[in-house]
Amino acid sequence: MPLLGLLPRRAWASLLTQLLRPPCASCTGAVRCQSQGEESLQVAEAVLTSQLKAHQEKPNFIIKTPKGTRDLSPQHMVVREKILDLVISCFKRHGAKGMDTPAFELKETLTEKYGEDSGLMYDLKDQGGELLSLRYDLTVPFARYLAMNKVKKMKRYHVGKVWRRESPTIVQGRYREFCQCDFDIAGQFDPMIPDAECLKIMCEILSGLQLGDFLIKVNDRRIVDGMFAVCGVPESKFRAICSSIDKLDKMAWKDVRHEMVVKKGLAPEVADRIGDYVQCHGGVSLVEQMFQDPRLSQNKQALEGLGDLKLLFEYLTLFGIADKISFDLSLARGLDYYTGVIYEAVLLQTPTQAGEEPLNVGSVAAGGRYDGLVGMFDPKGHKVPCVGLSIGVERIFYIVEQRMKTKGEKVRTTETQVFVATPQKNFLQERLKLIAELWDSGIKAEMLYKNNPKLLTQLHYCESTGIPLVVIIGEQELKEGVIKIRSVASREEVSGGSRNRRDEVFLPFPDSVRNMHLLAEKLSSWLIVVEMNKHSLKMTIAACEY
Fold it and tell me: Is the pTM of this model over 0.85?
């Protein structure tokens, strides 16, 4: 007799039907019984099929994040928030206002704005009669906002996620879902003043993040187009060739040349002329040299771009950052909406220390001028000149993360300043009253969620989470109306009610807790004495310096 588990599915269904079928003595005819039997067979087979399918699918299910995305742990969030705080504080220091736009836009809003990269947009299914796409960057939604609200002048910053359907390179900080930090100046102003400020902001942020030495490459789209024209590139191929040149930071010149000639149909001699230009880079002296170039000097667009770059370098010198800027003719920026100055920041490779791997992450910030983008959304074509920059948070975060791993640095994931502890049993009510006093005074405090925790367990929790101070309350402290403060790092204590030791401070409970700023002043004075003697960093409740 064959094993039941090896019976065909239909045989199983038939057997189950026979077992579950009620007696058929009352049936009036064979047809009716046959009909009921077939219906029962179909129901049983459907039940078995669904159960077998669920059983077969469950073991194959893999819990993972979608390709090109990642979870951020509490440790990651601490590092990320510090980076974002530095970036946003710089934006605010330059007078920018914060804003936000929807995570998705009408598909027609985003199409034909990104050139060849338009194919990387995430399209959504038809939602209520609207064709939608996830936003590809923060610039196009900003231009749409300006046109829709008829805003003519604005200095704004925007921090938000964007999505691009490209092959992710996680080891280089490239994802399909990532965060951008944008700063933009919209409005009609004198030439190159806003552009120079954008480059100044880039320098301030990259210097503040202490990522190492960096260089900001600058060029102008008018110079790029002028270069294409004098080299013999057909105007219809300008954007396509520009997209190829933009890959020079990832590909060798021979590979880019091959793409232009073989895939995009450019004449080999034209590609070679372009190759002579894209190898040029330098400072303001190169700008002067290009003014004298026999071919480039004959192009009106190129001369306009060179004139603006010369003025830009004057302002950059006044800002004290000209040494961080390089005029680089290989810089093209593939997005279609750029119309003037373009720039891109890269980290300079430094000799790696023992145990470190070289970090090739590409550009960490980029931007440029886009004077025609807003007009594309305005019914009358009214233009609002704009210039801006974007900070590559994911790549910066990847660099910081790798360096912390190499150095073995630990990250504290909470900001708790005080832990409320007790060495005795049945003191939950007193702990709850005390921690409520601390919370109401604006102090960040924690306690264990147990009725009778052991003191050693409580102190170990403080050490493992980096909480600097412990407030201890027990029978003796309650009787004397005081509390005991303990430094977790030094294990020194402040006992209340007496001055037997020179470093003790009297702290009546609960009156002094209600005035926590006074407590912090007294405590910080004591801690400064203790910690200075131990050559460590000071800690205070008020600012939680540790």
Answer: no
